[in-house]
Prior knowledge:
The complex is a heterodimer. In chain A, 0% of the residues lie in helices and 49% in strands. By secondary structure, chain A is mostly beta strands. Chain A is globular and about 40 Å long. Chain B is an all-beta fold. The radius of gyration of chain B is 13 Å and the shape is globular. Classes of the chains: A mainly beta, B mainly beta. At the A-B interface, strand 5 and strand 10 of A face strand 5 and strand 10 of B.
Amino acid sequence: DVVMTQTPLSLSVTPGQPASISCRSSQSLLHGDGWTYLYWYFQKPGQSPQLLIYQVSNRFSGVPDRFSGSGSGTNFTLKISRVEADDVGIYYCMQSLHLPVFGGGTKVEIK
Amino acid sequence: EVQLVESGGVVVRPGGSLRLSCAVSGFTFDDYAMHWIRQTPGKGLEWVSLINWDGGGTYYSDSVKGRFNISRDNSKNSLYLQMNSLRDEDTALYYCAKGRNRVSWSFDLWGQGTLVTVSS
Lengths: 111, 120
C-alpha cells in the first residue's frame, strides 16, 4: 500500500508570511499517461475538506493564487505565499494513482 | 449551487447494518463518479468506496470490502452506502464526494458528512 507522509505535523505562521508543507509518497505517483496523481485538500475547523490543488500544481476553481503546488515522483510541496487568517485549518495531501490514500495532515495556525 | 447532503448516520450495535444516503443537486449527477470517504480523530481521512457514473464499476478499501456496498440511483440523483457487519472501527464521520469525471479516482466537492457510531 502507498503511504503518504506529511511534514511538519503543525505550523504556526505570522499573517503575511509564507508557509510550506511537504508530502512524500512511498511510491512514485507518475502514471503512464504522464499525469501525476497528487492532490491537496484543506479542511477548515468544523467544515468538510475542500479541494485546493489537483494533479500536483493545478489550482481548483476559486482557489486563490496564493496557493501553489509543486513536485514530482514521490516528493511534493504545497506553498502559501502569504498566509491569511482564513487559511487556518488542516491541509492533507492525497494520492489517487492507486486506491486513494491521504496523508496524516498538517495543522496550520496563526501566530 | 452544488449540494451533497448525507443522511442515515445513527448509533448502531456491532454486527448491525446501516444504509447511508447522499442526495445531490446542482450538477448532472450521472456525469460523475461518486465516492464515500470517512474521517475519525484517530485515523484521519480514509477513502471507503467509489462507484462509476453508471454504476458499472465499484471499488472498496480493504477495510470494508465484503461488508459495504455502494450503489447509486441516477434517476433520483442519489448515492448510497449499505454497511453490514459493522465494527467498532467503522465509527466515523462519513462524507460523500463528487468525482472529477465519470470514472475518477479523485474528488472535488464534499458533503457535510453524517456520523456513524458503532457501539454496544
